[in-house]
Design a protein that fits this description.
With 218 residues, this protein is α/β, with parallel strands linked by helices. It has helices at residues 25-35, 86-93, 110-126, 151-158, 176-195, 205-212, and strands spanning 3-5, 10-18, 45-49, 52-58, 64-65, 71-78, 98-104, 136-141, 165-167. Strands 1, 2, 3, 4, 5, 6, 7, 8 and 9 form a nine-stranded mixed beta sheet that branches.
Length: 218
């Protein structure tokens, strides 16, 4: 679903953070926005809905330019977690190139996690995206809290899916960049197969990731 203009030599990549309400999607993006180099990101924008928020920002507002002259722009979004905002979820998922599913590690949220992942699969299908082909990572957030699902149980549940699993505390700031980096690597591989970022445009996966994930020294 890459937005690619061959004549203008521009490519826009869209990443979406999905998951149940209050799982930490917004906290993930706010942390990324805070730690990444200010020269490589735009302003954090918030669209308020009742009892929830959809936020987004441009990560490369001035574009990453490959040796061939291809300009790549990255947009990162969250979706509202509340069920009543399902139409907004679908709209945000349209033309997505990669998804990070943010689950809540608390035991009491297990059902909400399952229902939200099922909703993701359904909505991807509705907007014409196969969940088995789109780059997808799962992050179990809120590992700093008590009464959380043990790591071994999470791994046992998801090991056969082949989906990369990360454990994080977005509030404390750990596991966030690692989740994002893995998603970027998977997205690069997906795009490279179709548009030959390396062979035709001289952009390696390492260059792609490191130019996006530049940590601010402020």
């Amino acid at each position: 679903m890459i937005e690619f203009d061959e004549v203008q030599k521009r490519m826009v990549i869209k990443l979406v953070y999905y998951g149940p309400a209050m799982s930490g999607k917004t906290t993930n993006l706010m942390y990324l926005h805070d730690v990444l180099d200010k020269k490589g990101r735009g302003e954090l924008m918030t669209l308020d809905t009742q009892d929830d928020r959809t936020i987004f920002f441009d990560l490369l507002p001035f574009f990453l330019t490959t040796p061939s002259g291809l300009k790549i722009k990255l947009k990162v979004y969250t979706v509202p977690g509340q069920v009543r905002h399902d139409a907004t979820r679908k709209a945000v998922l349209m033309r997505a190139d990669g998804v990070a599913f943010i689950a809540d590690s608390q035991v009491k949220e297990s059902l909400n996690n399952a229902e939200s992942f099922s909703n993701l699969e359904k909505n991807l299908s509705i907007v014409g995206i196969d969940i088995d082909s789109i780059p997808l990572v799962i992050q179990f957030n809120k590992r700093d809290l008590k009464d959380i699902i043990p790591e071994e149980d999470v791994i046992k549940t998801w090991k056969d899916s082949g989906i990369p699993i990360f454990f994080a505390s977005a509030l404390m700031g750990w596991g966030v960049v690692e989740t994002f980096k893995c998603l970027l690597e998977m997205v690069y591989d997906h795009i490279d197969k179709k548009h030959q970022l390396n062979a035709s445009h001289g952009l390696t996966k390492e260059q792609f990731v490191t130019q996006i994930i530049r940590i601010s020294n402020d």
